[in-house]
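Researcher: I'd like a structural prediction for the single chain below. Treat it as a standalone chain; there are no partners to consider.
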Amino acid sequence: MKTKFAFVFVLLAMLLAACGPRATPTPAPEPTQMPEPTAVPTEEPEMPKTIVDIAVEDGRFTSLVAAIQAAGLAETLSGDGPFTVFAPTDEAFAALGDTVTDLLKPENKEQLSDILLYHVLPGKVMATDVAGLNGQSAETALAGKSIDIKVDGDKVILNDNVNVIITDIEAANGVIHVIDAVLLPPSDEAMSEDAVGEKTDIVDTAVADGRFTTLVAAVQAAELVDTLKSEGPFTVFAPTDDAFAALPAGALDSLLLPENKQQLTDILLYHVVAGKVMAADVVGLDGQSAETALAGKSISIKINGDKVILNDSVNVIITDVETSNGVIHVIDAVLLPPQ
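Model: Treating it as a single chain, here is the predicted structure.
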């Protein structure tokens, strides 16, 4: 009886278990999706800048850049090189006055190109290399024309009157040195020397240079040739052709008439100072006046930084062109004697 009862109990327990609620299966965890790696932006390497790129971006060489473009030299100076460029600032070009405007004209492209190539040396010549060339000449990219180099303490001076004011601006295709004046190549007959290397007089120097045709014509019309070819010494402040062209319309033609010879003579003598007065001497005359060869008439001299200004308005743009009987300083306007 007990066995029967136990069997029934076990059977009942099994039935109850079978009818009970089924266990809910635990869902398998879904795999976690890994985030895509974030791409780190890579900076494009900066392309090295050429001499032209640097000049454009700098902001102090707008006139130089305009000249390079007008001369068709932008591609050349963006090439492999290497080149050394003596770069005049905008102020240096401004000192040339209207000459710059004329040089930018299409008909003067070759002359402009020659001037620019005269500022370029082949190779990368750093400041330390330039300093080692004291007393020597460096051949430029203008065939047959060289630049004289002088080192005075920590100053580098080109052609005796152009100062290097900033050095070693490195470019991908060379180096730039900044200068305070425009370098003008000597004419085929050296500006103040003849074929055998001897200095010529003031008149012959002006004739050979090519920028003083009006001055030479005026000297001839006033019959001052023999005077300015004599022993001297003289200091002549020589206006360029552009300076004469800036006179009021008809003024020059009138002065060249025979009946105005005395007036023309007076004007020319007002550009002459007795003795050989070099740039260093002129600088020492700041605030003073210099007596001219026109009796009783003097020129006032003012120094503003590295600029020499005559009569408050006329700029000396090239100095110390030595001759056998004195020196020429080039000016950007005609000096008119006070009445």
